[in-house]
Amino acid sequence: MAGKDGENLVKRQPALVYAGFWIRVWASIIDSALVLIVLFPVLRWIFGPGSSQTDAGQLYTASGQINWAALSISWPGPMDFILYWLLPAAIVVLFWRTRKATPGKMAIHARIVDARTGETPSSRQLIIRYLGYYVSTLPLCLGLIWVGIDARKQGWHDKLAQTVVVRPRAIADATARFEQPGADSNRDASNPRSTGWNHE
Questions:
Q1: In a 10 Å sphere around its CB, with 0-12 CB exposed, 13-18 middle and 19+ buried, how is residue 101 labelled?
Q2: Which of 2, 83, 91, 100 could join 111 in a cystine, given CB atoms 3.0 to 4.6 angstroms apart?
Q3: Residue 164 in 3-state DSSP?
Q4: Among 88, 96, 102, residue whose Cα is nearest residue 120
Q5: Between the CA atoms of 22, 168, 128 and 135, what dihedral angle is there, to the nearest 10 degrees?
Q6: Along the chain (200 residues), what's the average pLDDT of each consecutive run of 10 residues?
Q7: Where would I find the beta strands (DSSP E) of 70-119?
């Protein structure tokens, strides 16, 4: 009985495909634009328009002289750490946990799921995925470009966290595969060598 219920549940679910490289680039652009729209007013409100934080980012003073403070290297303070590192991480992981996606991914109808089961990833997986972005980005963004090479369109951060990004089928080039509880894993034979560049 449980097996039939599981089969019926799978049949009712819409066909999913892995979200490819270019569609995920668009999602990242949307997320970046939203961060800028939200973050800049917050920084202006916290530091004020005439603060040293704002002045330090300008190469020239109002009188036209070089602002040497803008060229100096200084260690970030606690507020910088909270605003630029901790707060964005908390917001992104919260979106992943509650909505399975950031606003950019929601705009393209994509979501992050467990690579093995297709279920909601654990908090541990999501934290590893976020930290994995640094691993993907540092070597000339190779880990991000890997989305366009991998058959399941996983970046290095996805592989580290054992997650995949899926969206409803449009033009299917690689159908998403998941193990069903209580049933043997069915291998999808449809174009197994497809890469993340195709159709996306």
A1: buried
A2: 100
A3: strand
A4: 96
A5: -10
A6: 45 78 96 86 68 52 65 68 87 96 96 97 97 95 97 98 92 66 54 51
A7: 111-114
